[in-house]
């Protein structure tokens, strides 16, 4: 039977306090230089980070890139807040420029965790994501930070989570995937987001001026820890006899690859062939783990803003809204071309 975990707002506030000093140390430095320089998408295109059309027509400032990241942090923060407390993030963290949207959260609620370790991981990740939202908003300032757009983290046959699960072949059309149902469902829901966040920050790093690399790298590192924790727990639970998790994770990975273009860069949590030095393919006891998705050089892969938009909109075609952002993102970077 599942056991209820008491996770209240006071606990989350206490967890956030541990991060305040680090955020305050960086905030003044980060904010003082915001908007100092623009990085053209033409330069990004030379690095394989944007399409030819983007390279010819678009100039992104640091604020554009940071607001793009803020949109993604809103999504993650709301999901983890609901999964751990049953409610969303504070209203004063949702205001800003552009159209503020509501959170579709019908059916969302605190996960009845049966594993107290996963519950603690979830609480820590939730606190980190709320801290990221607050940090980016403070760095951008009230006149530059975008408002939270409309977000869909609801439960239902037509929800974004269910659409993603259908694409991953976890369920069939008309069925419902509930990421708040239990530990395993929560981990799958988190997996949908975490790898995308890591690759998005890595892909956006060359678009930022040198001033912001340190702060962006700090967030990227935390997101990578989150992703590795989620992947590790999915692997640990997935190697249990009768578990479908490894197959389900691979389905999510394949679905993301089908959305972000022809190049296969996503990876599941097991490997059938050796892709990393000294990694054995001996599967006598367990399948080979692939907790850290990377190439043969041990380097994480990158996604362009356009690829990220295709994934969060759940649409490989040109789109400006859909999926987890039913009204689109706020800010300059919000329209995706066909992947």
UniProtKB/TrEMBL annotation:
Coiled coil: none annotated. It comes from the Bacteria. This is Ferritin-like domain-containing protein. The chain crosses the membrane at residues 29-50. Keywords: Membrane, Transmembrane, Transmembrane helix.
